[in-house]
Please model this.
Amino acid sequence: MLGKIFVSGLRKVTLTSVGLGISGVAVVGGIGLISNSVFAGLTATATSVPQSVTSQTMKLTQSASGSTAGFSSSISNMAPDDIIYRYIDLKNEGSMNGTALTLRLADSATSTLTSNASIGLQVQIDECSVAWSVTYTCTGDTTSVLAGTSANALTTADRSLTVASLAAGATSKLRIKLSIPTSSEVTTNGSLPATTVQGQTSNLTWTFTEAQRVATTTNA
Model:
C-alpha cells in the first residue's frame, strides 16, 4: 500500500508501507546476527600439585671470642716490637656453604701506621681448632690463616684467608696479632722525623667477606 503526502511548494514525497519497512529491517538484522556468531573450540589443561621452591641464605658474622674484647676495644700507646692480640669468632650463620674468604682493612684516619708498609702496623692471623683457653693458648691445633702482612697491603687490596671450614654453621676461632716492627728513629730537639710511627692514630675497620658456594646443576 502506498501513501501520499503533500507539503508546501507542492513537492510530493512517497513513503513505503510500514509493513515493508519492518520486513527489511528484520532481514538486515538477521544477516548481522549470522555474521557475528562465535563457535567454541576444544581446549585441554594439565595442572601440577603445588611445588615447594626455597633458597639458601648467606650470613657472615664476627664477634668477640668468649670474654675477650675483640675489635670493640681500642689499642693505645703502642711502640715498636709491641704485640697486641685480639680474639674473634668468625661464623657462617647462613644455610649456604661459603668459599673464598677474604679480609680488607679501611682506615678513616690515615696515618703512617697504615700508609707505610715497612714501619707501619703488621697483621697476622691464626686459627685454633677449638676455643682459645682463658689463658689465651690453643689446646687444639693452631694453623695459619694469614701470614704476616702489612696493614698498608690490607688497605689496598683484599687478601685471601685460609680457615678450616666455611660450611654453614661453622665458626672460625681466630687470633689477630698486631705489631709495629723494629725501627730506628731519631728525635732531634723535640722534632719528630718526617716519616715516623710516633704519635700516629688510625681508625681501623675490619671487613671479612665470603663468596657463595660453587653453583650446582641437579637432574631429578
